[in-house]
Amino acid sequence: MAAVETDSKAPFSLDSYHVSEELGFILPEPLKDLPPYYKPWMDIALRVPELVQSHELRSHINQMPMLSSKFLQKHRELRLAHLALSAMTMGYVWQEGENDTVETLPCNLAVPFWEVSQRLGLPPIFTHADGVLANWRKRDPEGPFDMENLELLVSLPGGDSVRGFFMVTLLVELAAVPALRSIPTVVNGVGCGDTEAVARALENISQSMEDMTDALKLMQVHVEPAVFYGIMRIYLSGWKDNPSMPKGLVYEGVQTEAMEYSGGSAAQSSLLHCFDELLGVKHEEKSGAFLTRMRNYMPPAHKQLIQDISLQPSLRSFVQQQADERLSQAFQLCVTRLLTLRSYHINVVSRFITVPAARARQLRDQSRDLEEEMISRAPTALEERGTGGSGIMTFLKTVRDQTKDAFLPETS
After folding, report:
1. Are 384 and 352 in contact (CB under 8 A)?
2. Higher local confidence (pLDDT), 79 or 381
3. Verdict on whether the full-model pTM lies above 0.85
4. HEC profile for the chain?
5. Considering the chain, what percentage of its residues have pLDDT values greater than 90?
6. Does 5 have pLDDT greater than 50?
7. Who contacts 362 (Cβ-Cβ below 8 Å, separation ≥6)?
8. Are 84 and 47 a contacting pair, CB within 8 Å?
9. CB-neighbour burial class of residue 250 (10 A; exposed 0-12, middle 13-18, buried 19+)
10. Directed axis angle between helix 270-279 and helix 315-322, to 10°?
11. What is the pLDDT, as a whole number, of residue 389?
12. b/e string for 166-193 if b means 16 or more Cβ within 10 A?
């Protein structure tokens, strides 16, 4: 939050930002199917993993009819269409791996994908908003929101690890909901000088951050590192900052010049952006530029929320001015928990990218078992890089270390 006075006297609220009271940034009750006219899309989208494995996805998409997007009326219809078209796009581009990519996305896929993207304000590529926020259903509608009762609507190659990866990330989003609900209390409490309300809300936020870290630990249970690194990762990768596709991708029928878009990334989740703006965490230069660019991959209302939090009077300055022990401790604990979350994320990335990348280099010239074979055949162009295109470890450690600067001065 910046030290800027706002003109509005109305209390800050989440009502206009497409944030659900129960689910936060998660899309409530995503549709499972589109109107019958779009059956040719869904028939292929639901079979992406098997059609990639049989090397038939490109030919199926090339024969797909050109459908108009104009019959998609509701927001949930557009979100499911974007999910389906984006999964088809990732499969089409990466079906043959990094050495036989395509330069052009055919117009029967590219044009409707572009139109749907324009209407949603999302880029024409698979994003966190697709794979995580709008890609879930409960097996038992009355049952709990947990790993056993959740399944994907649309999948990518990688089997159970794909479901594990997206569902665990969904549970991290769910764990953040109490923190999101507490943000207006913090903003309004700062505005009217209510120290106790702000302290209480910050305590809720820090608890929520701890729950997010605990949810993230499920990644180790539900995702195989060899499968993530050797199979899944390329299908989450984009055509920006990717040596396998240095020219980007031409969206046929949209424009003749190639376009570049980053692949899916945890940085496309709005959660940590909100926390950074609330707590006054500043990211400089390269890391800050990447994080800012990732906001263009979020639903516009969520991006606007981050921007509007940044325009509120500074929470950190308020805490320093009040000199209230409970308030100061609550603020410090939020920064500590945010640091812990980012540090644990670094551990996850090490387990799923850095360690397998080192093994891949070591194994390429040796005889291998199945798991080692998977790792050794992984894309070499993306070694040590995140699916969003960042030099992953340097980036994450820089972002974590910049978080420490938000601590109040008296704490080292």
Report:
1. no
2. 79
3. yes
4. CCCCCCCCCCCCCCCCCCCECCCECCCCCCCCCCCHHHHHHHHHHCCHHHHHHCCCHHHHHHCCCCCCCCCCCCHHHHHHHHHHHHHHHHHHHHCCCCCCCCCEECHHHHHHHHHHHHHHCCCCCCCHHHHHHCCCEECCCCCCCCHHHEECCCCCCCCHHHHHHHHHHHHHHHHCHHHHHHHHHHHHHHHHCCHHHHHHHHHHHHHHHHHHHHHHCCHHHHCCHHHHHHHHHHHHCCCCCCCCCCCCEEECCCCCCCECCCCCCHHHCHHHHHHHHHHCCCCCHHHHHHHHHHHHHCCHHHHHHHHHHHCCCCHHHHHHHHCCHHHHHHHHHHHHHHHHHHHHHHHHHHHHHHHHHHHHHHHCCCCCCHHHHHHHCCCCCCCCECCCCCEHHHHHHHHHHHHHHHCCCCCC
5. 84
6. no
7. none
8. no
9. middle
10. 40
11. 47
12. bbbbbbbbbbbbbbbbbbbbbbbbbbee
pLDDT of amino acid 7: 47
Location of structure tokens 């040796």? 366
Instruction: Round to whole Å and give the CA distance between 24 and 20.
Output: 5
Token digits of residue 337: 């928990």
Structure tokens at 393: 């470890």
Residues 6+ apart with CB under 8 A from 229: 352, 353, 356, 357, 360, 374, 375, 378
d(CA 167, CA 146) in angstroms, rounded, equals 9
Query: To the nearest 10°, the Cα dihedral for 183, 144, 141, 22?
Result: -10
Reference 249, options 93, 34, 404, 115; nearest CA is 93
Q: Please list, in sequence order, all residues whose beta carbon lies within 8 angstroms of the beta carbon of residue 146, skipping any fewer than 6 positions away.
A: 171
What does pLDDT average to over the chain?
92
List pLDDT tens digits, range 340-356.
Answer: 999 999 999 999 988 88
